[in-house]
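hey so u asked for the seq, here:
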Amino acid sequence: MIYRKYGKTGKQVSIVGFGGMRFKNIDDREECVRMVIEAAEGGINYFDTAPGYFGTKSEEVFGEAFRELQRRKIPFYCATKTSKSDEKSIRQEVEQQLKRLNIDAIDFYHIWCIITLDEWYRRKRNGVIETLIKLKEEGLIRHICVSSHLIGDQVKEVLSEEAIEGILLGYSVFNFSLREPALEEVAKRNLGCVVMNPLGGGIIPQNPELFEFVKTKKDESVVEASLRFLFAHPSITSALVGFGERDEIKQALNAVNGYQGISQAEIERIKANTTEAFNELCTGCRYCDNCPEGIPVPKLMDAYNYKRLYGENKRVLDRLKWHWGISPEVAEKCQECGLCEEACTQHLPIIQRLKEIAEIGRENPNT
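ran it, structure tokens below
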């Protein structure tokens, strides 16, 4: 395993982290706990979860695994999050999380899901920074971090906050251009930087033929190549992979064990082959799954990815029918309330895409 310094904290973090939001079967508690332990045995020491991942089940899985890791004296760091902003609510949440996680202190505590600067300003007014500083002084959390989906230069405003020691943000081979300003600021301020959705929420492994250009060696998979592309960035502390099953852990460990660096010429070649269409792909975070009409927005956005990737309406219909088992006509229920777009961490035009999916269905009624 390769370890890197997490900013100025002094912590040495594994270059691959374990993201706890994509377990294939969260109700198989024994298997999920075994996955966490297996990852730790392979050298992964950074484990990220949140109170909204499968309700509280992700934190509970980690908590059971952490108990065993502590018994066996296998070192680990825990990262989790809060969307609260006032002291009473945050303190209550932290106390509950510590119990679920079976730890005395949370190593990396994130102000969760900053999508707009207005949201950042609102939470600051409510006292989130002051509260986290208090909790740090009390020893309940060790480092104050932020989870941000801001793009371009906007993230600089967040990282200028002196108390912030690290950031969690989306970054992959197909959307790196949107995050480069953030990584420049990370380097300037010597902050820790963990990147989520390094495999595009599954898009890369599900479409290997489209990402062959990422490979720099004949014997590597596109998953290994995509992770190694991230390893080559000096400002990235850890690539946070949302593991669903054990084989995915093995693939990530193989990516680390076989990593020998990538030349700057190869990096530039890979970047040059990344098309604009990739920047508009939904990464499947599911924050938009809040439709009052019951529309399964994440599933529809996943299917729409196939229009962006292949430019074929049939691919969209096939994805909806054979993968999700739903009809495109469900998109017609949209009342354009905008809740999904407000929640979208990538600022995608969801309403317009729903209209397009509905139109594709009308044009192909027998498909």
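The first strand starts at residue 3 and ends at 5. The radius of gyration is 20 Å.
lmk if thats what u needed
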